[in-house]
Amino acid sequence: MLRASSQTQQLTDKLDLSAVVDPAKDSGVVHGALLIRFAEAVLSNDDTALNMTRTQMLENLGPEALVDAAGVVATFMQMVRIADATGIAVVGMMLEKSSDFRTELGLNDFGSAQNTFGTSG
Amino acid sequence: MAEKAASDNKQSSRRAANQQGFFLRGNIRGEWRPFYVCPVWLYLQRWDIDRDDGGSPMAISYTTAPVPVRADIQAAHAQIWHKLAEPGTWWTGAERIAIAAEVRKAYTCQFCKTRKAALSPAAVEGKHATAGVLPDVVVEMIHQITTDPGRLNKQWFDRLVSRGLQETHYIETLGVLVRTISIDTFCRGIGLPLHPLPSPVVGNPSQVRPAEAQDDEAWVSMFPPELTTGLAADLYGGRQASPVLRALSLVPDEVRLSIFTLLPAQYMDPFRVRDPDCDPGRAINRAQIELLAARVSVLNQCFY
Questions:
Q1: In Å, how far is A46's CA from the nearest CA of chain B?
Q2: Helix, strand or coil, per DSSP, at residue B193
Q3: B96 Cβ partners below 8 Å, 6+ apart?
Q4: Which of A20, B122, B171, B252 is a plausible cystine mate for B294, CB 3.0–4.6 Å?
């Protein structure tokens, strides 16, 4: 959905999906580096880094954006567990459309890929 | 800014509460039970939604949050916290609270940290730091999913089943677990301490297993994708739902809470996720939202 939504917002030429696996890369998304740092800080145990990143979020994006970003991070901390704890598979069009970047980004090497491809765990 | 945030959150809380109606606990025929109150009544009473006396089912508040929290998020979280305390489909209210408490134990469990650092979780022996209330098999389930979801596999799930954990209880535990983590993560994100857990509500689980669930798609039984009638119509409005929207459907209330209560407030309409033109109108745009989602998924090693 990142690639698809970026196409809609005319970011295609600038979008670099590899930023989701390598934060040193520029995703091409406005304030992308800060958003990635925020997600990492929330998931970490580093309260100092989180406090600093939260301040940067407030200064650059504002309080509503901080709340929205926290909501998205919180949502996906839920959704990844629902997916990986029930063994559901990626199917159909989603599997087809993602084949190029899954290989490029090394996503097929994730342990949970076995739920889709059926390799031994 | 903090005072304005507190004032904004208080107003949002009251608006959200009165839009949805609310439950109070009262002594009815000698037993403390929740009862529904009319929204209008709330305006006439000194209902302090920020009440945090440890004995209220509504022990959740954003009035001290450093930033204003949207009313829909406050309402969703309040509903989820209230439902946490109530008897579920398979667990009592007390057991559901114990599950949430065990999730929080997992956050600092040293055995979990050691196991996560190991090449293979199965190669590490030890004991979880547990509250000691739930059966060991449920504790193992909660700790592994909470701390290392990327290395879950069918063999691990089968071991839980062989130790007596039924898939019905597994799904309800999973629902409580993920919502606890989600709301705790949100609090951490905005800089608020974790909400105190509510007091359990007395009552028995309903123990209703939907006949529609089938066991041929994933590790657990779930509604098949082509089913759009009956209970599936109630849950999904007659629409075909993706696997992740059906993953908890063995316990329909878990779908109602985790998917249809939480997602619209914190993310977007679950049925519009695959529409790249859909922008939920937040302060961050769709590409920014999906960047966050993708990074969190990668950090959790989630292929799906």
A1: 11
A2: coil
A3: B84, B85, B86, B87, B88, B172, B176, B200
A4: A20
- What does the pLDDT average to over A22-27? 80
Listed in sequence order, the residues at least 6 apart from A10 whose beta carbon sits closer than 8 Å to its beta carbon are none
Which pLDDT value is given to residue A119? 52
Kind of pairing, strands B31-37 and B22-28?
antiparallel
Give the Cα-Cα-Cα angle B210, A114, A94 (nearest 5 degrees): 75
Give residue B285's pLDDT.
93
The answer to whether the CB atoms of B303 and A65 lie below 8 A apart is no
**Chain B from 141 to 200: CB within 8 A of any A CB:** 145-146, 149-155, 157, 171, 174, 177-179, 181-183, 185-186, 188-191
Residues of B within 8 A of A76 (CB-CB) are 267, 292-293, 296-297, 300
Write the ipTM: 0.84
The encoded tokens of residue B220 equal 């657990």
Give this prediction's pTM: 0.83
Confidence of residue A95 (pLDDT cuts 50, 70, 90): low
- Are B83 and B205 in contact by the 8 Å Cβ rule? The answer is no
- Size of chain A, expressed as the number of residues it contains: 121
Low-confidence ranges of chain B (pLDDT < 50): 1-2, 14-57
